[in-house]
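Listing S7. Sequence submitted for prediction.
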Amino acid sequence: MDKICSNQPYLLLMQTTKAIQECIKANVAKHELSVTEFSVLEVLFHKGTQTIHEVGSSILVASGSMTYVVDKLVQKGFLERNNCPGDRRAIHISLSGQGRLLMDALIPEHQVLIDSMFASFNHDEVNSLIDVLRKTKKKVQELSNE
């Protein structure tokens, strides 16, 4: 059987991911945020109060790094820390009033940016891209579990 795939899909996916990250990085930098800080705020904006571990799992950041990012966001006035009532070891984090105001302004701007990245795709192309990425993710997860 002939080999049907080179490393071109991998390289293109990595280059595309980097280009998207750089674009988002430039956009959130206008608000004096890093991509990781924005990601933390975005999770809390959409999901509400979470533990540091839950947020870290959502954005794929190690807990040690998460503590540093959360500390910075608390210092900037965008997050609040609260003890978890059911578990004294866990800390809940949530958007502060200032953080909510920031994200109320930033999320629509971010959505326009993301939509513009995929504006040249028609509906079928978007669905095809989603299918291919899901299949790729599933296969990579299978390989990771071997």
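Caption to Listing S7: primary sequence and predicted structure tokens for the chain studied. The two ends are 24 Å apart (CA to CA). The chain has a mean pLDDT of 90.
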